[in-house]
C-alpha cells in the first residue's frame, strides 16, 4: 500500500514539474533535483535508499535504449570523431586526472579506488543540456554531439569503473591487463548488441501486431544487457548498439503502426525513468548526510573535496573541447582531398565504354559513397563549430543518472566509502544546479544561431517533391497494383495524384509564405475545416453511443477511423 502511494505521488510530482518547467522555462531535471532535496528534509518523509543494481540493471538499460533508437545513424557517423573523443578519451582522461587529485586529497585512499571514483564522476548526462538546447534552439549538430556523447560515455565509465575495482582487489596485474580487459569488454558488447539488434528486428518484423511488437520491444534492452554482462562485457554498450541498429532498421522493417506505437511507448518510459532518477538524486541527499562518519572526514570537508573535483572536471572539459573544435575545423580540408580522389576514380570508370558486372557494382558503390561524402562536406561547411559552440559544449558537463547509480556500487571495502558517495553526489548536484541553471543565459549571451527555419522548410519541401515524383511513378502502371483484369478509372488516378501532391504543396506554402499569411493559406484552411468536420463527426458518434442504437464493435471501429484521420491532420504537440 505504502509503495503504491509513493508511486502515485512520484508520478504526480513528475507530471506537475514537467508542466511547470515548460511555463517557467527551466529544465525539468533541475527543478526535480531541488524538489527532491526539499522533500528529503520534510518531517515524516522516509529516507530513500535505492539499491544501485536497481538503477544499473533496471533503469539504465531501457533509458539508454529509448535514447539510442532515436539516434540517426547518419548523424552519429558524421560526428563520430567528436563523439568518440568526448565519450571515450575524455572520460578516461578525466577519470585518471580526478583519481590522482582525490588520491592526493584523501590520505589512505588507494590509487585504484580513487580512479574508480574518478570513473563514477567523469561521464556527463546529456538530458538537462539537450532539453535546454532544444528549447533555446541550439544547432542540431551540437545537440547530436551532446546526445551521442551521453549514449557512449556511460559505457566507458562503467567499464573503467569495473576495471578499477578489479585492480583495487588485485584481480588485474598491471596496466596492460586493464587495457586488455577494457578492449575485450567493448568488443564483446558491440558484437552482442549487434546480434540482439539483428535478431529482434527480424522477429518483430514478422509479428504484424503492434501489441506483440511492443511486448518484444520492451524486452530488447534487457535481452542485450544481461548476456553482455554475463560474458564480462559492457551491458550498457550492448544496449546502445542494439538500440541504434533497431532505430536505423525500423523505417525499412517495421510498419507504421509499430513505429508510432514504439515512439509513444519509449517516450513515456524515458520520461518516467529519466525524471524519476533526478527526483531520487535529491531525495537521497538526507540519507547520505546521515551516513557520514565524521571521525574520518566531516560533511563540510567532503563537500569541499566534491566542489574541488567539480572544478577540476569543468576545467578539464574546457581544455579538451577547444582543441577538439580546432581539429574539427580542419577535418573538411582532409575530407575534400579524399572526396576529390573518389571523384577522379569515379570519372575514370565513367569514361570506359563498356563495364562488366563487377565494374558496374563498383561504379554504383562509388557513386553512393561520393554523394554521401559530398553531403557530409556540405553539412560540415554549413554547421561547423566555432568558439561559441565550443563554449556551450564545454559548459554542458552536467552529471546525472550513471553518477548516482555507480557511486552507490562502490565496494564497502573502500576507505572513505560513504564520503566517496557524497563526493559523487556533490559533483552531480553542483553541476546540475550551477551549470544547468546558467546554461540558458550563456546560450542567450553567445547568440548562437540554431536551425534556419526558412532553409529547413525549403529542404523539407524539396524532399517531399522528390518523394512525390517517385511515388507517382507507381501510377504509370496501375494494373501492377490492382491486377491486370481490373480497369482503373481515370477519376481514381486523378484523385490519387491530387492527394499525393497535397503534402509537397503544403510544404512549399510553409517555405514561401510568411507566418501571418500561412494561417490563411488554402491548405491550412483545408486542415482547419477538416478538423472541424471531424469534431462534429465525433460529437455525432458520442450521441450515437449514448442512444445505444449501434453495436460496440461498429462504434469502436468508427472511433479508430476518426482517431487516425485526426492524428494525420493535427500537428504534433498541439492543436494549432
What does this protein structure show overall?
The protein has 576 residues and is an all-alpha fold. Helices cover 81% and strands 0% of the residues. It is built from 24 helices and no strands. α5 crosses α6 (111-121), α5 packs across α8 and α5 runs antiparallel to α14. The longest helix is centred in the middle third of the chain and has 53 residues, at 299-351. The protein starts with a helix and ends in a 7-residue tail after the last helix.
Please outline what is shown here.
The protein is an all-alpha fold and about 575 residues long. Helix content is about 80%, strand content about 0%. The two termini are about 40 Å apart.
Based on secondary structure, the structural category is: mainly alpha
Order of helices and strands: HHHHHHHHHHHHHHHHHHHHHHHH
Q: How does the overall form come out from the CA principal axes?
A: globular
N→C terminal distance: 42 Å
Q: Give the beta-strand count.
A: 0
Amino acid at each position: 500500500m505504502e509503495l503504491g502511494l509513493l508511486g502515485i505521488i512520484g508520478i504526480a510530482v513528475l507530471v506537475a514539474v514537467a508542466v511547470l518547467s515548460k511555463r517557467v522555462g527551466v529544465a525539468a531535471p533541475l527543478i526535480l533535483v531541488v524538489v527532491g532535496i526539499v522533500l528529503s528534509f520534510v518531517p515524516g518523509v522516509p529516507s530513500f535508499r535505492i539499491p544501485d543494481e536497481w538503477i544499473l540493471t533496471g533503469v539504465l538499460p531501457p533509458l539508454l535504449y529509448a535514447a539510442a533508437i532515436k539516434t540517426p545513424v547518419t548523424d552519429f557517423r558524421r560526428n563520430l570523431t567528436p563523439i568518440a573523443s568526448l565519450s571515450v578519451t575524455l572520460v578516461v582522461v578525466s577519470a585518471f586526472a580526478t583519481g590522482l587529485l582525490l588520491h592526493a586529497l584523501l590520505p589512505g585512499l588507494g590509487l585504484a579506488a580513487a580512479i574508480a571514483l574518478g570513473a563514477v564522476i567523469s561521464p556527463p548526462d546529456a538530458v538537462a543540456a539537450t532539453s535546454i538546447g532544444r528549447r533555446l534552439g541550439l544547432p542540431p549538430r551540437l545537440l547530436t554531439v551532446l546526445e551521442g556523447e551521453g549514449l557512449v560515455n556511460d559505457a566507458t565509465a562503467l567499464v573503467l569503473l569495473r576495471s578499477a575495482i578489479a585492480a583495487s582487489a588485485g584481480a588485474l596485474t598491471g596496466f596492460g591487463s586493464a587495457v586488455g580487459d577494457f578492449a575485450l569488454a567493448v568488443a564483446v558488447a558491440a558484437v552482442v548488441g549487434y546480434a540482439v539488434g539483428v535478431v529482434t528486428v527480424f522477429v518483430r518484423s514478422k509479428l504484424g501486431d503492434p501489441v506483440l511488437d511492443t511486448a518484444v520491444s520492451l524486452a530488447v534492452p534487457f535481452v542485450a544487457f544481461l548476456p553482455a554482462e554475463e560474458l564480462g562485457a559492457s551491458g550498457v554498450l550492448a544496449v546502445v548498439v542494439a538500440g541504434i541498429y533497431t532505430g536505423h532498421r525500423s523505417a525499412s522493417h517495421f510498419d507504421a503502426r509499430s513505429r508510432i506505437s514504439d515512439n509513444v511507448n519509449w517516450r513515456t518510459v524515458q520520461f518516467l525513468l529519466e525524471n524519476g532518477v533526478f527526483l531520487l538524486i535529491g531525495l537521497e541527499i538526507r540519507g547520505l548526510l546521515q551516513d557520514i562518519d565524521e571521525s574520518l572526514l566531516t560533511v563540510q570537508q567532503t563537500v569541499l573535496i566534491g566542489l574541488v573535483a567539480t572544478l577540476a572536471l569543468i576545467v578539464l572539459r574546457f581544455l579538451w573541447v577547444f582543441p577538439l573544435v580546432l581539429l574539427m575545423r580542419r577535418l573538411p580540408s582532409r575530407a575534400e582531398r579524399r572526396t576529390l580522389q573518389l571523384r577522379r576514380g569515379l570519372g575514370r570508370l565513367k569514361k570506359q565504354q563498356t563495364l562488366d558486372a563487377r565494374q558496374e557494382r563498383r561504379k554504383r558503390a562509388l557513386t553512393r559513397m561520393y554523394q554521401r561524402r559530398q553531403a557530409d562536406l556540405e553539412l560540415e561547411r554549413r554547421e561547423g563549430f566555432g568558439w561559441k559552440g565550443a563554449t556551450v559544449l564545454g559548459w554542458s558537463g552536467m552529471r546525472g543518472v550513471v553518477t548516482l547509480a555507480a557511486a552507490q556500487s562502490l565496494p564497502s571495502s573502500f576507505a572513505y566509502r560513504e564520503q566517496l558517495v557524497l563526493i559523487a553526489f556533490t559533483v552531480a548536484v553542483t553541476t546540475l544546479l550551477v551549470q544547468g541553471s546558467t546554461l540558458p543565459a550563456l546560450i542567450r549571451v553567445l547568440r548562437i544561431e540554431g536551425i534556419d527555419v526558412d532553409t529547413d522548410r525549403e529542404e523539407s519541401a524539396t524532399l517531399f517533391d522528390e518523394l512525390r515524383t517517385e511515388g507517382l511513378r507507381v501510377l504509370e502502371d496501375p494494373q501492377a497494383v490492382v491486377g491486370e483484369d481490373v480497369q482503373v478509372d481515370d477519376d481514381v488516378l486523378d484523385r490519387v495524384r491530387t492527394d499525393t501532391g497535397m503534402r509537397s504543396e503544403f510544404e512549399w506554402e510553409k517555405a514561401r509564405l510568411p507566418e501571418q499569411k500561412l494561417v490563411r493559406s488554402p491548405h491550412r484552411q483545408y486542415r482547419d475545416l477538416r478538423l472541424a468536420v471531424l469534431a462534429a463527426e465525433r460529437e455525432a458518434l458520442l450521441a450515437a453511443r449514448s442512444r445505444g442504437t449501434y453495436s460496440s464493435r461498429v462504434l469502436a471501429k468508427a472511433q479508430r477511423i476518426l482517431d487516425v484521420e485526426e492524428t494525420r491532420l493535427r500537428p504534433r504537440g498541439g492543436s494549432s
